[in-house]
């Protein structure tokens, strides 16, 4: 930032403090952040669209099937080159990275996140990577929200709120669904739903939707017209669909974690690109509908055109046979999760939101087709089940049942299907939650104790910085030290009443407390006879700096009843944490959360 810009900003901030209240300025910023998040989404969608126009050139028409294999590899290679030569930074999954920034970085997101996903995600999806753009849109928007808050010197709580506004804005702009966007921000990001937080979310969501309409027109991603009403007699089938989507959500999540762990075995990014690129290219060659995000599949199945959804395949199959069609659609649904995660494993950048919808869309359509063609004289609405299948997968995979209900209802106008939407969403979520404790977005964060939730006490503990409560100004003793040296070099020079004992490798051996030597402090005959090794004893518990979360530390204090516990870092003694200092830090942080 130039000197002139800094000077202008300083003048503006002074004027703002004099003439605009903090709440009013937050409202203004929420509108700005919504607009920026909307613009980020517009740019993402347009860049991806223009890259895909390559496929429509006459030159490529004769090589369509071959390009399904080649193009994704080219896109992944371009992303690899950009990461290695220009960005030189890790680009995580947008929503997971944002959740981590909220819980552990006080909402501070690096500026490079603004343009990193903006460039790499369109290359991944535009060249055929089987991923979505919602995650990158959230990444771009949240980075804009975070840096806007920092630019105008907003506090941590406001910065978190503006990130939530950006998330809602990205969602609203992508789907033109402002209500679902707010619910998504609250449900996934565990935002405070007090009135003071709700108004900025509303303003940001509306601002982003208006931005999307201005630049993209009235066209929507999913086009659906409700032609078949909800039939009470179909409730049993909806319950059965919920069971199927719940199990499919478990499959989707297990595949994601399994393939992700497989690619982590490769230390070389180039090797990941080679293995993943060949795998995704092969899948797209044999199953072309897996190419890109998958909006074509969803829209074609919603309007009942399964032949258009399947498209051209390298197999010479009789598509007039409904069971062959069902088999092909099942293949698309099963391999969508595999293709998506393989794209990530190869180094691609994208999101899981849209692939989840695609799998649910296909699964719901297949379920309805099977019901209608098993010869038992049943008939259900294929379009309605196709739509509601999306809800089941979203509720299960993303662990976001409310978002699933309102998003599908809002973007399709299917409010008359609210009852089956609720049934399928609730059951699918319950089944998935039983087998997979957290969503794709949050599992790794939860395992590390870094996940923000609606539990305020847990959130306060999570954002506490362990380095700020560790005390290192203790005089350490060696096991061979004599009592006289302990009194002269430690006790006389310290205001502490306990002294850690370490060996030459600085490994923690035990502790000597003042009470342990008080009865012999004035017996000079023992000064040269008694060593520290005979006086020290094990502490009530030990804190591992690298492994223990703040919740673990608090539990350790509770279980041990101790007031001070030693901290070990990399296997060596590091310092002590006192219960009083930890509780003081906790109270201060709690005040920030409840202001």
From TrEMBL:
It is found in: Membrane. Gene3D superfamilies: CBS-domain, Clc chloride channel. It holds the Pfam family Voltage_CLC. It is a multi-pass membrane protein. Its main location: membrane. This is Chloride channel protein. InterPro entries: CBS_dom, CBS_dom_sf, Cl-channel_core, ClC, ClC-type_chloride_channel. Keywords: CBS domain, Chloride, Chloride channel, Ion channel, Ion transport, Membrane, Transmembrane, Transmembrane helix, Transport. Residues 470-529, 536-593 form the CBS domain. The lineage of its organism: Bacteria, Pseudomonadati, Bacteroidota, Flavobacteriia, Flavobacteriales. It comes from the Bacteria. The keyword Transmembrane helix applies. The chain crosses the membrane at residues 25-43, 63-82, 112-133, 160-186, 193-215, 235-259, 271-291, 322-339, 346-367, 387-408, 415-436. PANTHER family: CHLORIDE CHANNEL PROTEIN CLC-E (PTHR43427).
